[in-house]
Amino acid sequence: MLEVKNARMLYGDLVAVDRLSFIIKPGDIFGLLGTNGAGKTTTFRMIMGLLDPTEGEILYNGEKVGYHNVNEIGYMIEERSLLTKITVKELMLYFGQLKDMEPKAILERLDYWLERFDIVDYKDKKIKELSKGNQQKIQFISAIINNPKLLVLDEPFSGLDPINTELFVEVIRDFQKQGAMVVFSSHQLDHVESFCEEVIVLEKGKAVIEGRLDQVKIDFKKQNIRIIGDVDIKKLEAIPGVDRVIENSNEIIVKIESELVAKHVFDYIKTCDHIMKYDVEQASLSEIFIAKVGHKVEKV
Ligand SMILES: Nc1ncnc2c1ncn2[C@@H]1O[C@H](COP(=O)(O)OP(=O)(O)OP(=O)(O)O)[C@@H](O)[C@H]1O
């Protein structure tokens, strides 16, 4: 179990992380989200034991996290930090041995992962000869080569195409099934939503949203109704509790302030002749994120 207890990190006068607390248990996939500069990487560095919190503590299985835990942790950092002049095989031997692995075991695992990521032919290629996406796969493999019990992934999906994103998600899920703890950051909130159960959203180092994703959505209250059919937009807009009506090319989205308003919208819809679709859904994580921290965000 990983416990972040009241962790605070100052860089001079700047409060990068402000009294943050959360727990990750075996089998949890935990999303640490936030705008640029919100404090995610600083939190990861504290979790890895690379930075000592100014206040508070980080406990791994009940003890202060530190270098002695390195063999059980896998870390994929945001910046590409691969040694580019050596081959994939040499790089993995280097990283694996830093984690006390035997060369034979490293090479066996490397073969398995190269196959799984469909890059078998790159084993003896220099890192600099690989495309950006393939370098990212190698970076991911270097984080999981030691079969970690705690996997820390800073922006693992950035720049990946949808097929490779899905591949990364599958591997992360496999680690979850084996009982690993996974904590990751991402700006692609639709991905976060599809496979992460628990989230914290940071703003200037403070948690502004936290908890199980389903509960976060219930607490947010606002919902969306998707309609395909002949409706009068003005009549929809006039219903009390309707925040906004958006006309897309093929459907109408009615944004309502709470679940109760759906009944009034439905009462109106019953009076319309041609309705092909009427769906009520909870707000997306992206909408919740923008509502909570979007006033200061230019682009998420
Ligand atoms: N070594 C450092 N010295 C001084 N300030 C730092 C240092 N590292 C980070 N900061 C500052 O701390 C704050 C949090 O930075 P951090 O890198 O943790 O954010 P982040 O959420 O990971 O951002 P991004 O999404 O852009 O990667 C920022 O204001 C940043 O400028």
From TrEMBL:
Top-level lineage group: Bacteria
Residue ranges occupied by any ABC transporter domain in the UniProt entry: 2-229
Molecular function per GO: ATP binding; ATP hydrolysis activity
InterPro entries: AAA+_ATPase, ABC_transporter-like_ATP-bd, ABC_transporter-like_CS, ABC_transporter_ATP-binding, DrrA1/2-like_C, P-loop_NTPase
Keyword annotations: ATP-binding, Nucleotide-binding, Transport
Entry annotated with the keyword Nucleotide-binding: yes
PROSITE patterns recorded: ABC_TRANSPORTER_1, ABC_TRANSPORTER_2
Family: Belongs to the ABC transporter superfamily.
Name listed for the protein in its UniProt record: ATP-binding cassette domain-containing protein
Classification lineage: Bacteria, Bacillati, Mycoplasmatota, Mollicutes, Acholeplasmatales
